[in-house]
Amino acid sequence: MMKFCLAACFLLSGTLSFAQHVKINDTHIRYSGRIGMKKEFAEFYWSGSSATLRFKGTGVSADLKDERADNYFYVVIDRDSTYKLKVDSVKKTYQLAADLPKGNHQVELFKITEYDRERPDFMASS
């Protein structure tokens, strides 16, 4: 079974000296699609499943892990910029957005890999 972990928190950065952790069950994260909520992570079951976070700051990162390292996501920043992200089988902190202008932003992780690739876990984001 493959898991993709959206780990325990999103890490939001407003300046170089400030970071705020957002836990996986925080009400500021909106999930869509087939998502399995575990104590420390969320499992994305099907393609089209997503997690969206609105935040105030200049960047955001997330702790991600994929059991077999064969899942891909689109990272969508402010409903405008999009890039493809391949998640490793080792839990890592991925910088999803950086050097954004100070202010309100939105980041979305959108699973594009089909369900037969197992489930990745979203463990946290910061």
Class by SSE composition: mainly beta
What is the assigned CATH homologous superfamily?
A: Galactose-binding domain-like
**Spans where pLDDT lies below 50 across 5 or more residues:** 13-17
Shape: globular
Task: Calculate the mean pLDDT score and round it.
Answer: 78
Sheet of most strands: 7 strands, antiparallel
Q: How many independent structural domains? A: 1
Question: How far is it from the N-terminal to the C-terminal residue, by CA?
Answer: 26 Å
Q: Per CATH, which architecture?
A: Sandwich
Sketch the topology as an H/E string, one letter per element: EEEEEEEEEEEE
Q: Can you identify the CATH class?
A: Mainly Beta
Beta-strand proportion: over 45%
| Fraction of residues in helix | under 10%
Radius of gyration: 13 Å
Q: Could you name the CATH topology?
A: Jelly Rolls
Q: What's the number of helices?
A: 0
Total strand segments: 12
Describe the structure.
It is a single chain. Helix content is 0%, strand content 59%. With 126 residues, it is an all-beta fold. It has a single domain (4-125), classed as Galactose-binding domain-like (Jelly Rolls), CATH 2.60.120.260. The strands form 2 sheets. Strands 1, 2, 4, 5, 7, 10 and 12 form a 7-stranded antiparallel β-sheet that branches. A 5-stranded antiparallel β-sheet has the order 3-6-11-8-9, with no helix packed on it. The protein is globular, with a radius of gyration of 13 Å.
What's the gist of this structure?
Residues 1-19 form the signal peptide. With 126 residues, this protein is mainly β.
